TrEMBL record:
Keywords: Signal. It comes from the Bacteria. Gene3D superfamilies: Lamin Tail domain. It holds the Pfam family LTD. This is LTD domain-containing protein.
Length: 278
């Protein structure tokens, strides 16, 4: 009973420190040249209209993204989309931007875009290059909050399929078909299910505190006995730490200050959460 009470208390303390964070989760640079490249489901394959970028609010609170911009840099930097006023993403919410066309959920292979907010690029297109592309998401003040540099990826962005984080939200970018043979999943998780609210996932098994981490040590408590696999990713999806934790304390004194994503796995239980290290 004491352990259960402590877990509940820890969950409450941890959740109060979580803040909203927008990340790039999936991008389609190169739609296939036939109808299978019709990512927006409008019945027409277009090399421009079917490009898309999927952003996810990975925080535990709602996030007002009004005035945020999506820009890309190939030879020059161009603002491709400005988020309209009064656009708020709930925790775990998805913002899905297509290059153009008439996004039609019923016309997609999955038959839906989940619960995503779906829109077309305000500039008339996303204009993604199939190589050496840099995508930058900026908040309303112009501060860069998420970046994807295609030249740093280990997979091709010109492979008639999207690049997506695996696992969703915290993993490295991979080619979507390597997971399940499907070319893309706009608005959805890799497996076709709705993107999960991180807060719901967080409360399932694990308690992690303090957050922010200020002394180089993070306590991770599980409702189950046994070791835990712990992985830490930076905001670009690069793994900066991997370890098999046999105690309840993770030493991260050597990790630089910043915002990270923490993945904790124990058997079939997996939690992904944002972590601030000071």
């Amino acid at each position: 009973m004491k352990k259960i009470y402590f877990l509940v208390l820890a969950f409450a303390l941890f959740s109060s420190t979580m803040s909203a964070q927008l990340i790039i989760n999936e991008v389609l640079f190169d739609p296939a040249s036939d109808i299978t490249g019709d990512a927006n489901g409008d019945g027409t394959r277009s090399p421009n209209d079917d490009e898309f970028i999927e952003l996810v609010n990975s925080g535990s609170t709602a996030l007002d993204i009004s005035g945020y911009t999506i820009e890309d840099t190939y030879t020059v930097t161009i603002i491709r989309h400005v988020v309209p006023a009064n656009t708020v993403l709930t925790a775990g919410g998805v913002y899905l931007v297509f290059g153009g066309g008439t996004p039609t959920a019923s016309g997609t292979a999955a038959g839906n875009f989940g619960t995503a907010t779906v829109i077309v690029a305000s500039s008339g297109g996303l204009g993604f290059s199939n190589s050496s592309e840099v995508i930058i998401v900026r908040d309303a003040s112009g501060t860069a909050i998420a970046t994807l540099d295609a030249s740093t990826l280990s997979v091709s962005t010109g492979a008639d399929a999207s690049v997506t984080r695996s696992p969703d939200i915290a993993g490295d970018f991979i080619l979507h078909p390597t997971v399940n043979g499907v070319a893309f999943s706009p608005g959805l998780k890799i497996d076709g299910s709705t993107v999960l609210n991180i807060k719901e996932d967080l409360f399932a098994v694990f308690a992690m505190y303090p957050n922010p981490v200020i002394n180089g040590k993070l306590t991770i408590i599980s409702a189950f006995n046994g070791s835990k696999k712990v992985e830490l990713f930076d905001t670009s999806g690069r793994s900066v730490l991997q370890t098999n934790l046999t105690t309840n304390v993770l030493n991260i004194e050597t990790v630089k200050s910043g915002i990270y994503f923490l993945k904790v796995s124990q058997g079939s239980n997996i939690s992904t959460s944002k972590l601030l290290i000071k």
